[in-house]
Amino acid sequence: MTSAPKASEIAADQARAGAGAAAAEPLVQLVELQTIPMPNGILGVAEVSKHIGFPVHRAYYIRDVPAGESRGAHGHKALRQCFLCLRGSVSLAISKHGCTETVQLARPSQAAVVPAGCWRDLSNFSDDSVVIVLASDEYDEADYIRKYDDFVRWDAGDEPVTSVAYLDLGRASQALGAEMELAMRRVMRSGCLIGGPEVAAFETRFAAYCGADRMVGLGNGLDALVIALKAWGIGPGDEVIVPAHTFVATSLAVDEVGATQVLVDVEPDTGLMDVGKLGALITERTRAIVPVHLYGHPVDMDGLRAAICATGGGRDIKILEDACQAHGARYKARRCGGLGDAAAFSFYPTKNLGALGDGGAVVTADAATAEVARMIANYGSREKYRHEVAGRNSRLDPLQAAVLSAKLDHLDAWNARRSQLALRYFLGLADVRGLELPAVRAWAEPVWHVFAIRAPGVRDELQAFLTEGGVGTNIHYPIPVHLQPCYAGRWRGGDFPVAEALAKSLLSLPLDPTHTDREIDFVIARVREFFSR
Predict the structure, then answer these.
(1) What are 304-309's contacts with CB under 8 Å, separation 24+?
(2) Which one of 119, 240, 302, 457 is at 20 to 30 Å from 276 when CA atoms are compared?
(3) What is the pLDDT of residues 8-51, one digit of tens each?
(4) Whole-number Å distance between alpha carbons of 276 and 89
(5) CB count, 10 Å around CB of 469?
(6) Which whole-number Å values give the CA distances from 434 to 1, 408, 459, in the listed order?
(7) Which residues, 6 or more positions from 40, have their beta carbon under 8 angstroms from its beta carbon?
(8) Whether residue 477 has a cis bond before it, omega within 30° of 0
(9) Dihedral pair phi/psi, residue 159, rounded to 5°
(10) What b/e sequence results for 391-401 when a residue is b if at least 16 CB atoms lie within 10 Å of its CB, and e otherwise?
């Protein structure tokens, strides 16, 4: 039996709670353009930031349409458009999700902005009409849907699914391409390409989002872990407890500062640090514990603190959250990132909140930690050309900060969509014998960075079967930390049996906000087919 029923109930609650996170976008937005009467004529102005809302990469015009004829009659998957009738009049009908809105354009001072994913028809052209269309991208036949029946199927998500990628970053970039392009353009125009107001603004926003006071933008998640430990003066002679089942960066950070890793085994149903085993591992040399909110599910932080209180002897043992997979996740209604003494985040492109390259952050409520972390990241300098410690160069650049700030507006809606898809997996796979679904603790609101199932004894066969059937998968992670070649001789096989068992049985299924219900159903059907053989 699996723990799926309990997990599915929790996932259902989360999916319902997030169902209204994204407001429906109107089909047509009518905007008034700036009109400037002048002695030598009238000047009409349409600006991207004030009126259109997306960068313009193509413009074309329509004129001399015969009486009774129409134009358009096609759909676009991703293209956004702005229609202006410079002379005469025309009717514009826009359809999406079974609804149709029709507007009349009859004056050049008004424009109709149409979002992506719509069918459009232009009709009732006056004899003298001239229509200008501004488009968000250059011509791409693959973006067109020429037949209305095909559009209805595409719009309803009823197109046949023949394969499902594990992750397609191009989908998210396509959906937010205009916002990100405008954000990057803003940075390039500013001339401030290192630090500056874009970075400061995102640091303030993301710290507040996490329920903390401060954020220090850094180059990547590993840097965030290393710099946080260094900011606390942790180094040779100190011990840092980390889970045996995690991405290797967690362990590499401890090695880089010169401290000693102490591994703790994990829970078999979540893969998270087993806080019940911490008491036996905390010693007089323990300086920090790094709970990893793996797969977007928070660690039991109260249990962790209880273990420190019970065996720490009143010493200041720091808690450094590895929240690199937990953007927006909650523990007892509080977001990860504000639960420990500091938290390390990664903005690697695949994360729930991902940049267009590498990025990272230390988030903390402690002013001293933030100040020292910022100094270390700036070559060990608070004052130009005066270096207090042997620091490093680790920065979140303004281009990435601007993109992340644009994406942050959508993070809660994306996480809600992840919860909906996770629930779909729970309901579709709960009764499959031989398959174990991820557990969800009652106090947790995970964000499903990864949906990792367990298939003991048949994982590799299942992965091969899914690959052959067109389903992309991943393994997080195939080799536990203590058996990595870089640690040969430090630990032995069998030292952490739960982590070893997970490495042999875990398989990550596709789950991303851009996956459709039908794609998840396709995966479910393939998994069920494998186990029914």
Answers:
(1) 304/273, 304/275, 304/278, 306/275, 307/275, 307/276, 307/278, 307/279, 307/282, 308/278, 308/282
(2) 457
(3) 665 666 555 555 444 456 789 999 999 999 999 999 999 988 89
(4) 73
(5) 17
(6) 8, 39, 10
(7) none
(8) yes
(9) -65, 145
(10) bbebbbbbbbb
Element (H, E) at 322: strand 318-322
Q: Which residues have CB under 8 Å from 53's CB, separation 6+?
A: 29, 80, 113, 178
List of E strands, 146-289: 214-218, 239-243, 260-264, 286-289
Q: Is residue 531 within 8 Å of 476, Cβ to Cβ? A: no
Query: Which residue do the tokens 């200041």 mark?
Result: 316
* Residue 359, SS3 per DSSP: coil
**Which own/partner pairs from 172-178 qualify as long-range (CB within 8 Å, at least 24 positions apart)?**
172/354, 172/512, 172/513, 172/514, 173/356, 174/78, 175/78, 175/116, 175/514, 176/406, 176/407, 176/410, 177/78, 177/136, 177/137, 178/53, 178/54, 178/55, 178/80, 178/136
Q: What is the DSSP letter of 33?
A: P
Rounded distance between C-alpha atoms, residue 34 and residue 260, angstroms: 65
Amino acid identity of residue 510, one-letter, is P
CA neighbours closer than 13 Å in the CB half-sphere of residue 368: 5
Dihedral sign for Cα atoms in the order 171, 176, 178, 183: negative
Q: What pLDDT is attached to residue 6? A: 58
Query: How far lies 147's CA from each of 72, 77, 144, 153, in Å?
Result: 11, 13, 9, 10
pTM assigned to the model:
0.90
> Which residue reads 């889970």 in tokens?
243
**What is the three-class DSSP state of 118?**
strand
**pLDDT value at residue 1:** 37
Q: What is the mean pLDDT of the chain?
A: 94
Q: What is the pLDDT of residue 16?
A: 58
Nearest to 164 by CA among 527, 497, 533, 530: 527
Q: Name the one residue in this structure whose structure tokens are 């040969």.
A: 488
Measured CA to CA in angstroms, residue 221 lies from 216, 244, 321, 348, 471 at distances of 12, 18, 12, 8, 29
Tokens 């990792």 label which residue? Answer: 452
3-state helix, strand, coil in the chain (%, to 5): 35, 25, 40
- The three-state (H, E, C) secondary structure of 276-312, written as one string: HHCCCCCCCCEEEECCECHHHCCCCHHHHHHHHHHHC
CA distance 371 to 373: 5
Q: Check residue 465 and give its pLDDT.
A: 98
Asked if residues 410 and 353 have their Cβ atoms less than 8 Å apart, the reply is no
**Amino acid 173: pLDDT:** 81
Beta bridge partners of 509: 451
Token reading at 471: 């389903």
- Alpha helices, DSSP H, located in 79-196: 148-155, 169-175, 177-190
Q: Which residues pair with 360 in a beta bridge?
A: 218, 346
Tell me the three state secondary structure of residue 457.
coil
Residue 260: CB atoms within 10 Å: 16
